[in-house]
Design goal:
Spore Coat Polysaccharide Biosynthesis Protein SpsA, Chain A, 2 domains, 5-stranded mixed beta sheet, 3-stranded mixed beta sheet, 8 strands, globular
Length: 310
Amino acid sequence: MQKVSVVIPCHNAERWIGATLESVFAQTWRNLEVIVVDDGSTDRSPTVVEGLARNNLTLIRQEKRGAAAARNVGLASAAGDFVQLLDADDLIDPDKIALQMARLDGHSRSIASARWARFRDRPEDARFVDEPVGRDLDPIDWLALSRAEGLGMMFPALWLMPMAIVRSVGPWREDLSLADDTEYFTRVVLAADRILFCPGALCRYRSGVAGSLSGSKNWPSAFAVLDLCEAQVRGREDSDRMRRGFALSWQILAHACYPYDPALAKAALARAQALHPARTAPAGGPAFRVLSRLIGWRAARRLQVASGRP
């Protein structure tokens, strides 16, 4: 049985790291090494990890350097044949790794994807929805379908990867924070021969965590990530479908970062307009859509943010 390295960066996650580790220890694939890299936590996260001691669990402590640096430290210590990256507040179902390992048997240059769903407090509230990428695909087709309406999810729990591919793509970019997983897994997908979908492999993404990277407002990082991904993907295929997808992605970024960073929003819209005529409206409820028609989306976004909506 080949070994799977599970690498988990952890910063001030004492409320969730125990459940995350228990979801790993419950895996039916038994040959695991679990590496938790504590990134300068000031809460009881290391104590929680130490309380779950196993022969196959390693805790590495470092001064706070960011999640990407913590992942790089964990990957440098990993000795498995395959890698499962996992955030400290997400969960994987018991058969997740085993099902993906079965799909990857005999496919040393492929990576495996899974189904995912969001939850806030109770994992059982997660509702799984079929996606266009929910099938076996060539890498460039997976990236095109994932970005067909702007961008699908590419968070760490989804994937199981041969170590050879992980080593070939190089480390996580430590100069990025928000959306750095999109940049990293774009490289991983492009390095694979094929993406093998595992419909029974389930992972659960915890939303609404205060202080999480996904909730941060580091818009320059998100802009840099989108710029890097566009260069990588269009370097492989510069087609109408790719230009359309990235045009939508630039618009979604502009809508999200306005009014926090108006200059960056303007630059993102310019990138979209230069790529493709496809347009998408800012996300919002019925009241927001009415306001957008009456006073324009920018003014509606300012009111939306003033009312407490992100």
